[in-house]
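Justification of computing resources. Each target in the renewal requires a structure prediction run like the one illustrated here; the chain below, 383 residues long, is used simply to show the kind of job we budget for.
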Amino acid sequence: MSKFIKQMIRRCKDAYEAPRFWWSIAFILVCVIILKSCALIKKQNPPPLLPVVVSLSHKMDVPVYINALGLVIPETSVTVKTQINGQLIQVFFKEGQTVKKGDLIALIDPRPYQAQLLEYQGQLMRDLALLDNARLDLNRYQKLWKQNSVAKQVLDTQVALVKQDEGIVQIDRGLIQVTKLNLIYCNITSPTDGQIGIQLVNPGNFVQTSDTTGIAVVNLLNPIDVIFSIPEDSIPAVLEQTNQGKTLKAEAYDRTQQTLLATGNLLTVDNQIDPTTGMVKLKAVYDNQNRFLFPNQFVNVKLLVNLLHDVITVPTAAIQHTTQSTYVYVINPDNTAHKKEIMTGITKNNDTVVQQGLIAGEQVVIEGADKLVDNAKVTITHG
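Resulting structure tokens:
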């Protein structure tokens, strides 16, 4: 009986397991068919190509600049002031005109000094007469003293009187020279070449040597200087060139840094660093023939300190960054994008120097890189 039961159980088990086996085989076949169908569909409908804009890497010379904010100052700036006290009776310049050194600018009333000169000349004539008379008396006393006809004290007194009169004559002559000089100072002349500014005092006013405003300001605008400051860390790059006797070019731009106003040369470097700012002052000189630079004008200075020869550059837009690396996407001949890590240098305008990782002539992606992955298929548009 037990044997019969075992046979029945075995037959039931076989009956149960046979369909399960065939169902498993059928499932595997269906999966294989689905996978092959997907592969065929993918082959027939490839993923769309990613559009990118590319540009070529170039080999070129790149200038290295130090940028700074500068202040334009005239090479010579003189406030024309009076050297005597008197009434200003006339001016001989037009505001804004160019003047030469020695040109007559203004006139102070000379009549008080002319009258004073006559007075001092009269005093000199009187004192010369007194001196002549004292010398004649001295000669008489000297002869009488030799004859013992006059006391030695009288002779000594006359010698002192002659010296006193000589001193008075010398004073008179000095006063005459001072008055003549004041008469010269009545004619106020330009102390330098340059452009004269706005008239600060009108004729009719009484001007004095203690006045601080002066009559006008004369500025020498050609040539003209620019004072600017750079960080102390940039000084070695400047001194490396100047110590070799090289003249560094300094370009002056407007506030927007778009318009070149003038090109000049570095004149000097200050002998100390400002401890409060860590900056060093430099001075550049400009020819300024076109008068684009004006005193007290702020300009942006670009100081050329070096020229990198035959370096690789790419558009700055092509450079991508992560926390670990800097890279660009390079397009291979089969129109696939390849990620290349690079080492960058300075940036000039819209280009960046690539120190390592690229060669000249490679196509780099400048637009569309945000959607790319390594080995992605692309369609190319040249920038």
